[in-house]
Protein 1
Amino acid sequence: MTTVDVFLTNCRLADGRLVDIGVADRKIVIVGEGAAPASSNSAPALDIGGDLVLPGLVDGHMHLDKTLTGLPWMGHAAGPTRISRIETDKTILPHLPLSTEERAGNLIRVCVAGGTSHLRTHVDIDLESGITKLEGVIAARECYRDRVTVQIVAFPQSGVMRYPGVLDLLDEAVRNGADLVGGIDPLEIDRDPKGQLDGIFAIAARHGVGLDIHLHEPGEMGLFNVQEICDRTKALGLVGKVTISHGFCLGGVTERKAAEAAATMAEAGVSLVTHGAGGLTMPPVEMLRAAGVLVFAGNDAIRDTWSPYGTGDLLERAAMIGWKADFRRDNQVEVAFDLVSAAGARALGIGDYGIAVGAAANLFTITASCVAEAVAAHPSRKLVLFEGKIVARDGAFLAAPIRIASDFVA
Ligand SMILES: [Zn+2]
């Protein structure tokens, strides 16, 4: 007999079935219609009342170290270019009244309240700050380890080859807790694609970690680096461990060239993460998926030095991506949801994912009849569970996770 610690009853699944979900030892152990009454367990039951139950969301691209969450409103201070934003970071971030750890923690709590169970954040590594921002984000990760998992990318935002010493810092970052190596626009920022890509891939290969490379470069310039990234991924045996962030070029070239790039990425197992950027070209999500490219999504900038927008809500982000990609039918909106859930989990290497027996009990409940409605309307999350404990309720983060006991009143 399967031992159950708690049942969630009357749960609406994405496929429309109304089921009971049994949780034991941080995992889902039963999913079935009428499973709770049929069980001889005397486990406590929490009636979900027919609300939709969905797996914990996956934010595949964030910048926890840049957020201004928790501070009084600050107007956007950078100029119109990417370089201006990079330089403005260096004048603002060191002088904020809250530390990297505090601001990252503020944003983590917001994300958890929105149903996020897993996230990947980039953290700036540069000559001015060394690995201090990494240390701040690692401290926040440790503080909230029983609410969310955090993958950290060592991100050379200012460039690599134009600042000798950054490669050494990236290596140091991986030795000190970063999970992946980052990169940025090898031509546009560094004007040395071979130097940057050889350098960051060597670090990844040496430590056996993956890479996640920001590629904002447009058109042919971007396509050139997509090819270079895919070549190195295959040559170094890193298939399935490399992500291109943004890849705006894929949406700014002819369909034939985009299709060729998609085939190259699929063959190399290089995934793409998008956030549906405003004012920039959108990678063709459906074509890329059809070609076999793993596409996932993240919020990117959330009320930070790069953008005043963003709430951390991944369902809202999925709606924005769907709007930008012109997804209208339910099956298209479900694609937008997949980007912030199962596809993200595959990209981040999270194996025990989903509302299924054996998966971690990371889930949320929401008043919506189906996935498309949850994305389009994205009302607040009623309950958020991480490893079987309630970590947020009615859109609010809980100071301490709650274990569901027999006297629990929702
Ligand atoms: Zn980014």
Note: The pocket of zinc ion is lined by residues 61, 63, 122, 214, 245, 300 (CB under 6 Å).
Protein 2
Amino acid sequence: MTALEERKLGDRIIRELYRDPDYIDDPIVGEYVDGLWRALLDGARARGELPPELDERYAWRVLLGRDRSINAFALPGGYFGLHLGLVGVVGSRAELASVLAHELSHITQRHIPRLLEQEKRQTPLMLAAMVAGMIAASRNPQAGAALAVGGQAAVIQQQLNFSRDMEREADRIGYGVLVQAGFDGQGFVGMFEKLQNATRINDNGDWPYLRSHPLTTQRIADMQQRAPAVARGAAPELEALLVAARARVLGRPGVDVLRAWAGEPDQPGFAARPLAARAGALYAAALARAQLRELPRAQALASQLAQAVAGDAAAARQARLLQAELALAADQPARALELLPPERPSGRGQAGRATLLLRAQAQTASGQAAQAADALQVWVSDQPQDAGAWQALAQAHAAQGQTLRALRAEGEVPMAQLDYAGAVDRWRAAQDAARRAAGAADLIEASIVDTRLRQAQALLQQQRQEEQKARR
Ligand SMILES: [Zn+2]
């Protein structure tokens, strides 16, 4: 199986995952995870673990799933799934990075094609059957919630059951990549401890990661040799704790749990707890109150958090982003803008994306849609695959009454998620709008729409031909 074939298989799978109701584009968790991810990719390149052919052909993209179960998985073509549940249980960058480094190594070691070949699944027919099976499962209304990303992931993992040797190899290579990327190798040890504790407690279905990654004595022994556990006296990572708290709240824990978290800072003795314990609890309480539609109390808690973590730059930024998000929810866009000084986009991955998107929303809501559009335009010219930024740009154009531009940007949203039919649909509407406007139409924009429409139609036709071929 060539890298290109594997990428195409991955594209077909991911097209369905993007439509899954559990797929979530959260700019704050996403930016944080992407920061770890970029560092690991650089580490893999520096160690020669990322051959240029794979580097170029694969997507190297992590998709977040709004699922409380603890899971992470690699998919064909360099796509990865990460559940918010896993983000919610880790307290350090290195621990989360260790899981990503392990999954990354499954792909750089080409474990998926090796598996498909071993199991004689390499025929296009078998691959198509595998993908079709997953898609059929995702469309079965009876399966309900189980069909979320977690359900699909489970189906994929049944098909892609890595051998114990592959798991050990992913640990070994992943450890090297983690350390090369500048993370503490103890991240692996900490994550293994969490997995071990969960094994002891019993696997109640919340830890699908343990089923796909059984923690064998051999894996533990290998890791102890590589990174002997040391007594950790390191300072807690406030930012990691805040992002974990956010992931837990976004994971839809249910109203009762939200209420319990919302009331946590009112418990006696709360103020005397260590900062690390208070910070996560304040973040969870503020966001839980917002979800319970108690915005004034949510905002008061977020201010309390901002004061508590003021001495830590990364955590203070997270607190500010939360305050801005809550100000927007409370319909105070001017307040949100005060909280969000513009950040210079670094041109690397998603760094600065959370600020950009929150600022754009605040600008669009306060009569500065033109400024929002300018900033977003710069961003998408650099990151044309960013569906969320295209969506925000469409809103900024619409707020200025620029229908054609708004429709053009709207078409890029499904396009970035490989939904070519959706893109064709939006860009046909854009063509109609250009025709109706006749002489007043923006000619440059209209010609961009024509070009993009033709590209989407060609991709749609290609996709349909491939599907037909696979069915035969
Ligand atoms: Zn693995």
Note: Residues 138-154 have pLDDT under 50 and may be disordered.
Protein 3
Amino acid sequence: MITPRWLYVLAAATPARFGDPVIVDETLALADFATLEPGDVVGIGIHTANALRGYELGRQARERGAWVIFGGIHATLYPEEAHQLGGAHGVVRGDGDVVWQTVLDDCAGRTVKHVYEAGRIEAEAFAPARWNLLPRDRYMWASVQTVRGCPKHCSFCSVWRTDGQRPRQRGSDAVIRELVDLRRLGFRFVLLADDNFYPVSHRDLELAAAQGNQQRLQQLTAMRQERFELMNALSGLPPDMVFFTQITMEAAEDPEFLAAMRKANIKGALVGIEAVTPQGLKDVYKDFNAAGEDLVERLRVFRAHGVHVLGSFIFGLPSDRPETFEATISVAQRSELAFAQFVMLQPFPGTVDFGRWEKNMQEDDRQIAGVPLTRYWLIPGNQRPKIYSPHPVMSAEEICRRTQLVWDKFYSLKLIWQRAGCVKSWKARAAFLLISKLYRQMYANTGISTDSARVARSARWARWLARPCRRLFAAAPMPQLEVPPARVELGHIA
Ligand code: SF4
């Protein structure tokens, strides 16, 4: 669905003397190493869910005489694992934008380092993606990053630990240039692939003011001003360009920010709702979110400002009870969400939850396929458990079954059609229906279902639905499009 941005960023970071990189996105087609030659460099980016496949590819590439370099969140957390299991010659930890050139030079000079500590680079050094290498007809959404890092500290999320809590925001000119490149190619739907598009809330400003911390207040105010500058610049792009982003729920208390989003044509946002009860929010260190009826009201504010919300919920929290599942559907539907995803709690490496879980598991020597449970990503996919910690009142099977039922009910034709009222024309409603069904099928295929026949069916449906959906997202290329002139500032103050 979405362009894998990092592959194209690293392509841009590859000096011309090394030639054009061959880009492989295995969600489209499996890697084929038939043309690989000794001395070629194979860079493999992994996250926890695809680490095992990445290691398999690394070993294959090394056998053919290539230099193998790993990067990505998982390799940053477990560099030695990539060496031991993935045939790595070198591992990049942190941002690859700048260090990639050095890695390539070292491969050419046969002086590859065991580990490259690339760390967190400043926003001015973020490389733009090389979109001219992108196959035009394979993706629905393009992706551009405007900020890395998130000041929050949710217990299930590794972003604030890997990308840091200090948001690093790109200047609006660099973002606009990339967006113009994408619109020239015929992409009009773009995901702003940020950790958190709303890094400064009113509450943060009030807190800094109450503490008399003038320096912090100035920093936050400047950061907020930059967000408004970016949104102002987005509003100067062709009006058919539509953006989707990820924000925290606090943005609903900020009508000025929501108004700027509307002007910028940011029409959709993923909001991490996680839980519908105060206790559930405490479980995940997210008590800045609203719960109960306040939550319903808060989420409706987005819709009132023209921002359609994809709400994300987590099931399997210690405070969840059987009735939580039905209560969640009710909140999701009454909050006028356009889409929702219901994921099961999983301890991801790099998170607070994982650290706690790993410690609790010290006495537990259970293994699956010879792999300890605390290294579950190395267990073959079809044998991996779905739930990792015993729940106080529900079995793992019950949580899976109830989660599946929530997906089935929320994406039933009747409820989708009710939600389709968020768009006006019949054509748009039909598109909404198609996309809702696609979304549901894709998720059923990514770890929720325990029934392999159902998973296979979902995969077939998702492939079938993706074709017409892709056509709905395509636009005529605009090769002559110019970068819009800088727009007059709004004179915005926080
Ligand atoms: S879940 Fe969202 S708000 Fe929480 S730390 Fe991660 S990126 Fe930030």
Note: The pocket of iron/sulfur cluster is lined by residues 150, 152-154, 157, 159-160, 195-196, 248, 272 (CB under 6 Å).
